[in-house]
Every structure is written in structure tokens, then in C-alpha cells.
Request: fold
Amino acid sequence: MKRSRGFTLVELLVVIAIIGTLVGLLLPAVQAARESARRSACSNNLKQIGIASHNYHDGKKRFPSGGYGTVVGDKTGWSQWVELLPFMEENAIYTRFDFKAPNAVPGSPVDFINAGSNGSVAQQSVLPVLRCASSNFLLRGSSNGGNGHPVPHYFGIAGANTFGRFTSTDQLATNGSGWGKTSNRGMIPNCRRAGVVSPLGVEMKMCTDGTSKTLLVGEISSGIANAAGGAKQDRRPGSTMGWSQAGWGNAGHTSIGHMNSVTIRYPPNAAVEGQDGVGTNGWHIYQYGNCPLASEHPGGVQVVFADGSTTFISDMIDMELLTLMAVRDDGFAISQ
Reply:
């Protein structure tokens, strides 16, 4: 009886090598397909935010502000995300917040997050629409060992620092102690500043540069490296405070801290950790005003404009162009 011949060791090694080569060729394609799906989901989140913002404007004739309820006296209110809850199918969360509690005691206001059960509501509530699938960030902020409040991956654009043709310092606060620059010339001001901008939010007619050319929200879903190439650090505005907290301003508005919005000052994914506005000075880490837009998407970040359209912005974008896109009324013509 003739026996069937088996594989030799050489033949087996050749087959294994061929399979390994095919897997090596296929894996990058699979990873690229997965990232494409995650990037599409991120874009859809921003689209939903844009739609919710427009529905909000239809009802209230203004876009949501990043500083509702902010009062003079170093107290913070609630963010644009809280305002948008009913327009993002999260009314059940919205109705649990107590908006009267911060001023329940006449003459003795408290932070929104510390009033009544507001802190507990915010800490327990996770909003999927505010999370990018490509991000490596933990769900919650860095306080209490990472058990703090959920921190979003998307931030309102409050305006921009001066750059290129844009030299106006109108509504631009220069903060000490590493807080950086804070503008209220964007679509989502970070706090109520009396006499500076409508405390209830920006009306569409105030966007004289055009809603299709003015940024509304951008993503900060990745950490920021320093110039020496060190490990990326979480420098999101309000990274220990969570999604519900508004921007902060002292009585004289000489110090303005960001929470859920950002003033554009650096290019996307720039290695500027430790620089002004992206610093590490004590408790000021809560209030980074100029953290660059950042993501784990290769080559750039995603944004939504004031007209509700979304796009991908390259890390190599001209900084003057990005600056002008972040300001609603600079008066300069731009081409995208």
C-alpha cells in the first residue's frame, strides 16, 4: 500500500511565511478601515452637535453660550452642553439639574456644579455624542484617580488670539499664571462678561463673517506633547471639571478660565504642552485657555462650522486661516 506524502519542513515554513506576509499586508488595511469608521462616527457626532445648536437657535434666537449662569464673584455656571441637552435627546438629564440652586441663598451664590445635586447628576451622566471613538482618553477626568466627571472630546470655539492679519485685541483677555489668552469673539463665549458679549449667547446675525466660514465646535480628543517629544498630557479645558461646568471669570474679569470651550492660539496637534495657555501651574491646569485642537485621527482634527457643516482640518493648516475661522466678525475674506 502506497503512503501519501506529507509536507516537508521547508514547505511548511514557506506556507507560514506566505500567510504571515498576507496578514502583514491585510492588517494595515483593516486598521485603516476601522479608523475610517471611527472618524466617520466622530464626524457624525459633530454633525449632531451642529443640528442641535441650530435647533436651539431656532427656539431661542441665539447659539448656546459656554457660560450660562456665570456670576461675578468667582462663581461658575453651566456649559453649552447642559443647554443643548433637550436638543440632543437628553431631556431626562436636563430636568434633573436644579438651575435655581446656585442662587438659592440671596447674596451668596455658589458654583452650579456644587449646588444641590447638580454635581451628582453631572458625574453620573455620560453623553456618547461628546465622545470620539478614536480617543484614548479615560471616560472621566483626572481628579479623584480618574473617577471625576466625564470630560468631553469636543469644545466650543470661543475665539482666537491675534495672528497675521487679525490684530484686534477687542474682547481678548490676557491671563496670568499660565492661563493664556481668552477671547469672546467666537461662536461660543466661555463665560458671561458684562458689556463684552451677549451673556445669553451669540445671535446668528452677530456672525458677520458667515456661518459657513466660522467654527462652532472642534475636537480635543488627544493629549498634547511638548517640544521635546515627551508623553502626551491631557490639557483639555476643564479636564478635571467635566462637561457641565461653565467658564470662570473673577469679579474684574482680569482672569478668565476656560472650561468647555477654547481660544485658538496654536495649530492642531501642536507640540506645545507647557507653553502659555497649555501650562502646568498648580490648580490652573483646570483652566487651560489655549489647548490646541487635537485628535488621534492621522493628520488632523474634525470640526463643525456654525452652519452645521463638518470638515477635517489638516495639522498643516495655515495658522492665519485657522485664526480667522475661529473669529465670527473679523471682517477678513478667507478661502477654504
In short: Confidence is low (pLDDT under 50) at residues 143-147. Strands lie at 154-160, 172-175, 180-183, 215-219, 248-249, 256-257, 261-264, 300-305, 310-314.
